[in-house]
Design goal:
Length: 398
């Protein structure tokens, strides 16, 4: 990785302004899942142990530039304090006199959490004035929020203009090296598995994957556009309106000698809730009045052969509507197969990660990305603005 990390800088007695992803679920004033908070602990602990005065900031939900009482960071501060076993000061604003006074009062080893960055309209606009005010709070900038690195916001990009150093935290570093190694020197065969519902959003990634992979397996809602392009009846299944693009991608894979693996059988249902008729049919026999909601057992076997042989694997998007028990089998079986394969396995995407967790197989994967949209954009080969804004190793060390 060519970005400087917290290990490359002297943080002792410095106010370190760190962007984290504390966008956690909150119910009745309590954090219900602290995974994201815990994910930032290695960097937080490192900085505190090395004498930093730590100022943390994050967005929480989508308050759209105004104060929303239900989206204040107080429950997050309480949770972090509980985990760290020490007080966490909390500012009731992101920038301003109170935030500044609390930041200046910090002693080495102490922590302050700023208010929700998205209470300020300047955050998502990457506004220079707001960025400047954020920068005034710290002396060094650290970004450990990979999940928002694909957004050019004040707390991820603008702020770096006004501070001398912008470094990656450990979580960010892990993401960059895990995903970066897939792009740079993946061991062959490299198998990608794509699925999920955001078909139009995800089709772009296939362009890049077809340069890197020997096999691309497609399940979930994505598969039906491809089956339709092959002339199949797909009933009421999800369909990408841009069929020309789907056909172009099929041609592209063919010309690059990439195996494009599609389901051979599917679970079809009257509705997505699993309350109506359910059947398993071959893809040649899909009824016009039903929709495809999972890959079938034969497809699992076919996909499984490629997965078992893979040396590198990237998976984004569940194979079916895994939230419903009756439609979860394909996704769970693929998760098992990925867990058993011997090479490097990287899982990206919010729902895909949830599916792997649901299968209880998270610790069998090489890397589970914390960024949904960010990991996809990274794998498309795009430069993420939040990463581009960090200092390169050479630039600082020269
Ligand atoms: P990720 O969050 O991993 O990137 P997506 O958000 O694209 O994945 O898709 C996840 C959603 O796709 C899940 O809620 C799942 O129920 C849905 N899904 C998967 N297969 C189908 C299908 N055949 N038809 C409709 N929805 C599907
Ligand atoms: Mg999703």
């Amino acid at each position: 990785m060519n970005k400087i990390t917290v290990k490359d800088i002297d943080v002792n007695d410095k106010r370190v302004l760190m962007r984290v992803d504390f966008n956690v679920p909150i119910k009745e004033g309590k954090v219900t899942d602290d995974t994201r908070i815990r994910a930032a602990l290695p960097t937080i602990n490192y900085l505190l142990e090395h004498g930093a005065k730590l100022i943390l900031m994050s967005h929480l939900g989508r308050p759209k530039g105004v104060v929303d009482e239900a989206k204040r960071m107080d429950p997050v501060a309480a949770k972090l304090s509980e985990i760290l076993g020490k007080p966490v000061a909390k500012a009731n604003e992101t920038v301003g006199e109170e935030a500044k006074a609390k930041a200046m009062a910090l002693k080495p080893g102490e922590v302050l959490l700023l208010e929700n960055t998205r209470f300020n309209p300047g955050e998502t606009k990457n506004d220079p004035e707001f960025s400047k005010k954020l920068a005034e709070l710290g002396e060094i900038y650290v970004n450990d929020a990979f999940g928002t690195a694909h957004r050019a916001h004040a707390s991820t990009v603008g702020v770096t203009q006004y501070l001398p150093v912008a470094a990656a935290g450990f979580l960010m570093g892990q993401e960059l090296s895990a995903l970066g190694s897939l792009l740079a020197h993946p061991e062959k065969p490299f198998v990608a598995i794509l699925g999920g519902a955001k078909v139009s959003d995800k089709i772009g990634i296939i362009d890049k994957l077809s340069e890197l992979c020997q096999v691309i397996l497609i399940g979930g809602g994505m598969a039906f556009s491809f089956l339709k392009a092959q002339g199949m009846e797909i009933g009421k299944s999800l369909l990408d309106p841009d069929m020309d693009n789907v056909k172009r991608i099929m041609e592209l894979c063919k010309s690059r000698n990439v195996v494009l693996g599609l389901p051979v059988d599917v679970v079809v249902a009257e509705n997505i809730e699993g309350t109506g008729r359910i059947d398993t049919v071959s893809v040649e026999n899909m009824p016009a009045d039903l929709m495809g909601v999972d890959i079938g057992p034969e497809s699992v076997k076919e996909f499984g052969k490629y997965i078992a042989d893979a040396k590198t694997l990237f998976w984004n998007g569940p194979m079916g509507v895994f939230e419903v028990e009756a439609f979860a089998k394909g996704t769970m079986a693929v998760a098992e197969a990925v867990a058993e394969m011997k090479g490097v396995s990287v899982i990206g995407g919010g729902d895909s990660v949830a599916a792997v967790k649901k299968a209880g197989l998270s610790d069998k994967m090489t890397h589970i990305s914390t960024g949904g949209g960010a990991s996809l954009e990274f794998m498309e080969g795009k430069e993420l603005p939040g990463i581009a804004a960090l200092n390169d190793k050479t630039a600082v060390n020269a």
